[in-house]
Amino acid sequence: MPGHRITDQQIRLFMSKRKDHLQVTAASKAGISERSARRIESGQRQLGPSKPRNYRTRTDPLELVWDPVVLPLLQLSDTITPVGVFDYLCEEYSDVFAVTLRRTLERRIQKWRQINGQDKEVIFRQVKEFGQLGIMDFTWADFIVTIRGTTLKHRFFNYRLPASGWSYVQVVYGGESFVAVATGLQNAFEQSNGVPQEVRTDSLSAAYKNHSNETLFTAFFKTVVA
């Protein structure tokens, strides 16, 4: 009626009465005006959104087997398949489990594993192209080398091609100097019969210099890899 909000119950009643009565009659029986009835039939006035329910409308068909049987199986093995669980229930619990519940069981297992299953390993695959990249660095052995009782101070210059796994190692006497970098790279290029499009390394003191917190190539290093 004018001045009163139309309830969802009135709309349902009008729609029910409208099946067998004229619009004006159905509106009168639902307690609404003809104008409101026209708005309902034209789609301008619809039922409000239904509230989400947090309860079951029917008995859980897996209630007798889920907690006592299925959950222990899933917790015991991460590799057991829904089909395997289904076959086991059919053989051992046919008195309380119906074969028609296969899809229900599979959906329940899938949902449980999405929430409670083990985390899957995330892999970021890298595409490595031949001739694209070379990497280099200095390293050292985890043991001491002596010559006639005197410790040999040395380290290794290591150059590697990630795409093929080819590697070149050269002994360096002393520290990380420009000479060691230049000699190691030149020998590595000769041994690999080529120069990659890009050479990467960490912040070697011989190859980089710090200036205003920015890492810049030294002019000497540029001449080697150019």
UniProtKB/TrEMBL annotation:
Region (Disordered) residue spans: 25-55
Protein name: Putative transposase
Lineage, highest ranks first: Bacteria, Pseudomonadati, Pseudomonadota, Gammaproteobacteria, Alteromonadales
